[in-house]
Amino acid sequence: MTQPVNPAKSHIAPDETAEQHAAFEARIERGEKIEAGDWMPAEYRRQLIRMISQHAHSEVVGMLPEGEWIASAPTLKRKTILMAKVQDEAGHGQYLYHAAETLGATREDMIDALLTRRAKYSSIFNYPTMTWADVGMIGWLVDGAAIKNQTMLAGASYGPYSRAMVRICSEETFHHKQGKEMIVLYAQGSAAQREMAQDALNRWWWPALMMLGPHDADSPNTGIMSKWGVKLKTNDEVRQEFINEHAPELLEAGLTIPDPDLHQDEIGNWKHGPINWDEFWAVIKGERGLGQERLATRQAAHDDGAWVREALQAYTNRQRAVAAD
Amino acid sequence: MTQPQPDPQSDTQWPRWEVFKQDSEKRPYQAVGSVHAGDPDHALLTARNVFVRRPAAVSLWAVREDHILSATPEEVVSHPDVLDTPGEAGAYHIGVKKSHKRSMTFVDLIATVKAGGPGDALRQAQAQHPDALTWVVFADVAIARTDDDAETVESWFAPARDKTYKQQQYYGVIGKHVGELKREGRMPRRTTQEPHVAGHKVYDHPHDQTSEMLRQRAAEVEVKP
User: Looking at beta carbons, which residues of chain B come within 8 Å of A76?
Assistant: First the structure.
């Protein structure tokens, strides 16, 4: 029996068979993890490299907005916490580059893709950090949203990605909690502290909702990656979980969520008002936000590190020469 | 290895080293990820920075990727000649992945065998652990390892232990709204079960810190820089 096949919808590459796809999908159906050496559709590999490398880039660029505040942290305690957090983000980038490498991507190419804008990263990191409270609000909201997404991805069908997420989630929870602790403290502190916390919430609430991605109806990659066990929940489902958890906490802290339409529906879900997606796309395209500055900073760090790479290479060459003698 | 290999012409990267971490003397070494490095010392230093930012660890191994042979059951069927991979005879370490369960899919090193080469070691791994989901073997001589004297362990691994602020347990749980909302029947239905990863709760619902405590802590004033 012939099935009508819409070529635009088919994810079976010319050198792949429907049987191979069926066996692969049966493995995912059984809850098996796919490992690097296993057969997988070319499209699964391609989409995973795209997702994982973007995720890695987001961790790496994510160091920048908060890193700016290390020298200005108000106390030694906050400074050590922030340094550890930024260091973690660097480590998370490493875990994720490793996961993408198991699919055949090279580290060099991925870094080149970031620096030459072939690859994207989360647009949330193109927003400026205006005050010290932004550091806390990023921990509470941005890392809070990231954990929702990463907890889902820890269940993903690709073994190396899932393992990277397991490590990241357990470390990321520290980022979330230190931010929440800081903001709750300020929200119940002096008038100036309260004002600073509220101002940070006003600026980060909507970007945090947007960072979980376009509405399901506008998310072209969700379909096949959910069938293949990578995206286990839709953007809107993850966003709803995020709001359900954070809206009551922010209100409890005494802050005002900058959304006049926010309300609980009859089953208890917190419903947000319309999201300004024009802003989201403008930041992604670099028409708004600090995209230029962020990449310039990354490029400078890459160039400034060249002498370290060269020195290590020279040492390696010398060791080899000594060993050869 | 059946992983797609980068084009050697365009690839000027340092080689990749798989990193195995031992959390305590009683635990097996576990594959935690990889680093790129030019030499064994560089690999171990980088591995420490990437994988031992938190306790606990007592030892790290780094093994260059071209010294590792790994296979899944599917690969052994599709490429049976992997079991004949030639190489030096000697002591080989065997690692296996035993579970598809999230957070339990890391490869643990569980045995050392005498083998005629990597293919033979893989064959023995398969015979000893026919139900494993992945087998990994490499020669003992291929390992770059941290020293196990007390001084090395202290200087490499102890510092992470005192940095308790990196642990989520360091932060009290904050707020009291959840209990109140629940009592009033206004708490949203949970869309998923409480997420746990690696035995840790990924997210703690705040409930047991009182406002009084918070007010006291707000007294330790922190000012805008």
Answer: none
Distance of residue B83 Cα from the nearest chain A Cα, in angstroms: 15
Q: Are residues A136 and A237 in the same domain?
A: yes
* Residue A221 binned pLDDT confidence (cut-offs 50, 70, 90): low
- Please tell me the total count of domains within chain B: 2
Least confident of A97-106, A253-262, B60-69, B182-191: B182-191
Express each pLDDT in A118-131 by its tens digit: 999 999 999 999 99
For residue B115, the cross-strand partners are B90
Which one has a higher pLDDT value, B181 or A317?
Answer: A317
Instruction: From chain A, pick out residues whose CB is under 8 angstroms from the CB of B131.
Output: none
Whether this model's ipTM surpasses 0.90 comes out as no
Q: Determine how β-strand B108-115 pairs with β-strand A263-264.
A: unpaired
Co-location of B64 and B150 in the same domain: yes
Residue B2 lies in a domain: no
Together in a domain, A182 and A45: yes
The alpha-helical segments, DSSP class H, found in chain A are: 18-29, 42-61, 63-67, 76-101, 107-115, 133-137, 143-153, 159-187, 191-210, 222-227, 235-252, 277-285, 291-304, 306-324
At residue A4, what are phi and psi to the nearest 5 degrees? Answer: -65, 125
For residues A261 and A259, give the distance between their C-alpha atoms in angstroms, rounded to a whole number.
Answer: 5
Residue B142 lies in a domain: yes
B224 vs A173, A196, A269: nearest CB: A196
Q: Is B32 part of any domain?
A: yes
- Hey, of B137, B192, B216, B220, which one would you mutate to test binding to chain A, going by the most A CBs within 10 A of its CB? B192
Task: Tell me how many domains chain A contains.
Answer: 2
- Cβ pair A149, A212 in contact under 8 A: yes
Contact assignment for B214 to A38 by CB distance below 8 Å: no
Domain extent at residue A206: 28-289
Q: Which of B71, B10, B81, B17 is nearest to B48 (CA)?
A: B17
DSSP H/E element including B49: helix B40-51
Spatial separation of the C-alpha atoms in residues A135 and B18, rounded to whole Å: 34
Q: Which domain holds residue B197?
A: 171-218
Shared-domain flag, residues B191 and B158: no
For residue A166, the chain B residues in CB contact (below 8 A) are 102-103, 197-198
